[in-house]
Known about the structure:
It is a single chain. The protein has a single domain (about 25-130), classed as Nuclear Transport Factor 2, Chain: A, CATH 3.10.450. The termini are far apart. A six-stranded mixed beta sheet has the order 2-1-6-5-4-3, covered by helices on one side. Helix content is about 40%, strand content about 45%. It has helices at about 1-35, 35-40, 60-75; strands at about 45-50, 55-60, 75-85, 95-100, 105-115, 120-130. About 25% of the residues are buried. A hairpin with a 5-residue loop joins β3 and β4 (about 95-100). By secondary structure, the protein is an alpha+beta fold.
Amino acid sequence: MLKHLSLVLAIAAHALPGLAQDVVKDRVVAALGTGNSKELALHFIPNIDLTVGGASDVYSKAQAEQILRRFFDENPPVGMVVEHQGQSKLGDQYYIGILRTRAGHFRVTFFLKRSGETLQVKQLRIEAGRSDH
């Protein structure tokens, strides 16, 4: 019995980083899809590489949240779908998807970076996307 429990715990411990990654990804996707800039900013590193509309720079969490709030006010989201995901050469997870808004579609790319025990968004790009979705 103890042998089985050890095996289960070993498997669970190995799977936890992937589960944490999925939880953070799902929260980021949900915040993007609903236009919740406050929830989205909770997952940012202290200074995030952000590209939204005409703004493209490294911003503090607070600045990034304000920029995103303005973007979402002008482009109310109706949903977000991840179309592709992978891992960069640096080991960061990346996700590419389409943000559907009342004003049109936008291509979204974000990178999750491991910071200690947590995963955080280190880069977020929201760019004019294709209109065929």
